[in-house]
Amino acid sequence: MSHLIEVTNPATGEKIGEVKGISAKEGVKAIARAKKAQELWAKKPLSQRVKVLQRFKKALIDKADDFCRAIALENGKPLMEAMATEVLPIVEITDYYCGHAAAILSKQPISMRRLKYRKSYIHYKPRGVVFVIGPWNFPFVIPVGEIIMALIAGNAVIQKPASLTPLIAIKTRELMLEIGLDPNLYQVLPMKGEEAFKLIGAGVDYVNFTGSVATGEKVSAECGKNLIPCTMELGGKDPVIVCEDVNIGHAARCIAWGAFANAGQVCASVERVYVHESIYQKFVDKVVEVVKEMKIGDPFKDGISMGPMKDPHQLKIVADHVDKARNNGAVILTGGYKIDGPGLFYAPTVLVDVNDDMDCVKEETFGPTMPIMKFSDIDEAVRRANDSPYGLNAYVFTADRYKGQRIAEKLQAGTVMVNEVLITYGLPETPWGGVKKSGLGRVHGDDGLRDLCIPYHVNYDLPYQPPWSLFRYPYTLTKYRIFLSSLKTVWGQGVGAKLSGIRGLFK
Ligand code: ADP
Q1: CB crowding 110-141: b at 16 or more within 10 Å, else e
Q2: Which of 99, 302, 318, 372 would suit a FRET pair with 386, their CA atoms being 20 to 30 Å apart?
């Protein structure tokens, strides 16, 4: 059943658009059209596909201001943030994969350990139709990065944008059509979540999902039922460990940005901070100073550090976490309230005297909060940081690079950054994804592109063939005994003996 999806500006509550929602039935037809278009697209040489996406990059650069404004209006992040965290990373991602796809997807030879008279290689073919289900917090960079990669790899894409932010998806598709992409190759289907769910078993070949753990679990179970591979980019409760040797001013600025960028609506947002007791008070004072300098308001105005939240439901969760913490003895040093007015502004909130059992430290808040706690020894900090069902990113601040790496390797997170926060998502050469409830699989990096393909294996013969083989009739007892004794003399020995023994066997 078709329905209308109303889109609002989160800074004012005003309606900015209306989009026709699509039913699952129409979605199934779109998948069929995508399949046909994909067959032709996949036949084009990679270099031709790359040329098309290079045109997209150029067109996006020409319209960058337009796109940043559209993102700021629909999602609420300040214009500068729309540039730094959405548009620029897409230019970078497109550039990287246009430049490297040929090498990443080139045939990969495999050297044979045993059968030296045969050889193997892997070649990559696109999966087919990639279903990208995206979130509202980064409505451009998250889905579009995957869409670019999927197209370069030779796939068609069906995008289901979040119902709160369908406009930027429609705008992206318009740009793709302007640069000459076949309209059936990339289709945007604004639709309800439950309608999108019905498409999982309806002909898509891969699902890339970004959203909450609860929905990710449902979607991945449906993928499992239909044996469709998927990537799940889910939530986080990302910890920061601040060691006693840091430059406190630098650490406080970075970490405050990590907590309040995009009004804290970032899956890799700084959600809990553990600070060494010897510098705790100085660090807290510095953070409060940084937060007091922040300007909250209209994302289009000069100097604004933080815009509104996007989802009224999420704002309630934030208020609930903060109120519960306050009622249980936490001290709120800044913020702690929704700013009056029609916009969804929640003041940046620094909490102290919190403990590991409070919701604001345990559950994903996904809003502008920063609970700060003390630790006395690094093993304790690592244990508390790891004591979470999530594991997307984690952060360590220390003046000692090697100590930073040692701590990083103990943290249970898909990515750990030392002396920086958040930004690896915009670095396409690095993999992104979580452990534990934070997700399955990785996007970006070279493997992220290969995952959008099926690795086909070819094993072929060389002119030289051995006179006899384990894998032929007749099965004689003599042959059996030779192999029985060779198991002991060859496979039961060290590596050197194995190799010379194996060579002997197959000569
Ligand atoms: P959020 O609460 O942040 O919107 P969700 O996980 O609910 O997170 O949504 C992430 C994306 O998944 C959105 O595009 C949403 O519309 C979509 N979605 C929600 N429910 C389902 C579902 N049952 N099947 C497929 N997609 C869904």
Answers
A1: eeeeebeeeeeebebebbbbbbbbbbbbbbbb
A2: 318
